[in-house]
Amino acid sequence: AINTAAGxxxxxTGNTPVLNNxxxxxxxxxxxxSLGRGGADxxxxxxxxxxxxxxxxxxxxxxxxxxxxxxxxxxxxxxLLGQGVVLVQRRLRANAYRLNEQHVMTARxxxxxxWEAELHEELLELLRKExxxxxxxxxxxxxxxxxxxxGTTDRSDGDVAVIAPGRRMED
Length: 171
Prior knowledge:
Strand order of the largest sheet: 1-2-3-6-7
Mean pLDDT: 75
Number of helices: 4
Order of helices and strands: EEEHHHEEHEE
Low-confidence stretches: 1-37
Structural class: alpha+beta
Helix content: 25-40%
Largest sheet: 5 strands, mixed
Shape: elongated
Number of strands: 7
C-alpha cells in the first residue's frame, strides 16, 4: 500500500513482515564531481525531469517542487539557461521554464534519474526477499536514513531496523 500523504510505502517481506520505506526527495549537484550530494542544481534538474514533457513552469513552482527557495531556483535556472539545458517562455507575470528536449544532456538526465529509481526498487526487492530468508520470526523491517529518502551518496550506508519480538540483539 502506498500512502503518499504520509510518505510511507509498505512492502510485504514474506508471511507477516513488512518493509517500510519513508520516501523523500533526493539531491545531487549538476557538476559531475558532486553527483549524489544534494545540490540545488540537481534538485532543479530532477524537478524539471519530473514535469510532463513540454510543460513549462515558473521558477517559484520549480523551487517548490525541488524543495529550495525560488530565488535559488532562479539562480540555477539562469545557469541552466546559459548552458542551453532549459528553455524559457516569457510570460506576463513570470517566466516559465522547461527542459530543452533537443539538448544532448536531456536524454541522459532522464536515463540517469530513471536508473536511480530502478536501483532503489531493486534494493527494496532484495531486502523483501533476503530479510525473511536470513532470520525467522521477523515481524517487520524498516529502511530508514538516506537510503529511504533516496539521498544516498558514495559515502552512504544502508540503514535497516529489523523487528523480531522475543529476540535479543546478540541473537
